[in-house]
Each structure stands twice: as C-alpha cells, then as structure tokens.
Amino acid sequence: MPPRLNLASAFRALSLRTTPASQQPLLSQKIAAAVPKLPTVSVARRFYSDNLTPENNNNNNDDQVPSSELAPPRSEEEEVVSLSQQQHKEDNLYALNRLELVAYGLKPFDAEEEGHKYGLPSLPLPSELHKDHRYDDVMGQITRLLMKDGKLSKAQRDMAMILNHLRTSPPPKLNPARPLIPGAPAPNFLPLDPVTYLRVAIDSVAPLVKIRGFRGLAGGGRNLEVPAPLAARQRRRTAFVWILDAVQKRKSKGSGRKMFPTRVAEEIIAVVEGRSGVWDKRAQVHKLGTATRANLMNNQIKNFL
C-alpha cells in the first residue's frame, strides 16, 4: 500500500515570512498617494446673527482673521451716529414698557411701581385680604356656632347650603308689626345677596340687653335681676342661639345632610317675615329689662358695676 500523506508535517516544513503590521500601508494612505494634491481653500463658517463677529462662534477656525482687523477704521461721525442709534433703541424700549403699564391700568411714570407688573398693594391691607378674615364677620361667627365636635369643614358646607337656599328662595313678605332693622334693603333685593339676608335676619331679632342676676341682693336669698347691655357679637350670638333652638323644634321633612341647613334657612326666612317665635323671646327680654331697670339704683349693685 502507498504511504499516507500527512499534510500537517508538510506545512510545518514550509517557512513563511510575514511583513510587520506597522510597515503595511493603510488603504487611506494608498488612496491619498494616488490622488493628486489640491490647493487648500479657507472657508468661513456660519454663525448666528446676534453674534456680530465670527470670534464668538466656538466652531470657528483658529487661523481665520477676525473681522475687526479687516474692517476699516471708523470715523468720529460714524461713532456718534452709532451711539445715537443705540440711544434711540433704548428710548423705544422704554416707551414700549410705559405703554405696557398703561395697558395693565397702572401709572406709567410712578416711581413706586417701577419694576412691578401689577404694582404694589396699598398699606395697610384691608381685612378681606387676610387669610383669617376672608369672609364676612357675621358669617364667620355663625359658621362657628354651627360647628359641632370641631368639624369646621362640615359647618362651612352647611353654611354654603343655607346661603344657597336663601339665594334661590322667593322674596320675603314683611310683617309691618315686626319691622326689620333700620337701613335694611328692600325685600326684593334680599335674595340677591344672601349674606346681607342672613345679617338682616340676625340683627333684627338680636336683643339689646340681657338680664343679669345677683344672688341674695333682693332679700331672703332671692336674686336681684338687673339689665346689662350687650356688645354686637354677643347680641348676634344670642339671636342665633334662639334661632337654633327654634330649628330643633321644627319638624323634619326627611333625612340627609341637606335637611339641617334647609331647616335653618327656613327659620331665617320666617324671622324676616315675622313668623318665627324668636320675636316673642326678644320682646320678653326687652320687657323684663324695662321692668328691672329700677334695680340699677341699688347701692350694692352700683358697687358691683
């Protein structure tokens, strides 16, 4: 049999000589050698219009000549003209700013409003701009009288329902025997302003005095009753407590969270129309105050007062 050929031993006997990688020419070098050299042309790069010179552009070539060296020197007349143009632009901007202030309803030449778009508020600030006095004083006091268990948000929601009921109700029919407080608006205008509606109803039935008792001064251990004047908040508080007592005696027409505000609003309408029993309480307190005013001349009462 003929001997088998071993290719591995045959290739091992060959000696291969390779060229180092550093000596091999790259493809780009071969192409550059084949193409003839062209003359170099310096091309100026583009830049934005707000940059007046190409030096402000970061992509500009380092070997480019700045435009300030290429520009011819400016004469004194040209510099004066350029300064006058710049001043004219500043005057135009100032005039436009004044017109903008006039458009916002401000005084264009007021030094205090300079730099403020809407102007500065006048001091002292009115009470309506304070965060704790945003609402009417009567409405805020009545809202806290409606509050139970510290739930102010529920009381505010009930007050909103009461005012909405007063606003949507028909004009009240006044009773000549029980007139409202002097200066009250006409009944046709009361539903248009429910806050005034509430204020008129409470101030009309608010008592002027309260009966104060002094123990043992009447003899035999009896109390000596003396009338005492009330402040505005005390009068309104007493009147609304009477209104709440009358609301508790009203028959409920249903259930739900709207039922209580509805009954309070109906009682306020009854007060304005003279149908509520709160008027009788007020008359009784005033009658008792008139009867006991002679007790103010007591010497012991004078010492207390």
TrEMBL record:
<keyword id="KW-0687">Ribonucleoprotein</keyword>
<dbReference type="InterPro" id="IPR036823">
    <property type="entry name" value="Ribosomal_uS7_dom_sf"/>
</dbReference>
<dbReference type="Pfam" id="PF00177">
    <property type="entry name" value="Ribosomal_S7"/>
</dbReference>
<dbReference type="InterPro" id="IPR047988">
    <property type="entry name" value="Ribosomal_uS7m_fungi"/>
</dbReference>
<comment type="similarity">
    <text>Belongs to the universal ribosomal protein uS7 family.</text>
</comment>
<feature type="region of interest" description="Disordered">
    <location>
        <begin position="50"/>
        <end position="75"/>
    </location>
</feature>
<dbReference type="InterPro" id="IPR023798">
    <property type="entry name" value="Ribosomal_uS7_dom"/>
</dbReference>
<dbReference type="InterPro" id="IPR000235">
    <property type="entry name" value="Ribosomal_uS7"/>
</dbReference>
<keyword id="KW-0689">Ribosomal protein</keyword>
<protein>
    <recommendedName>
        <fullName>Small ribosomal subunit protein uS7 domain-containing protein</fullName>
    </recommendedName>
</protein>
<feature type="domain" description="Small ribosomal subunit protein uS7">
    <location>
        <begin position="129"/>
        <end position="293"/>
    </location>
</feature>
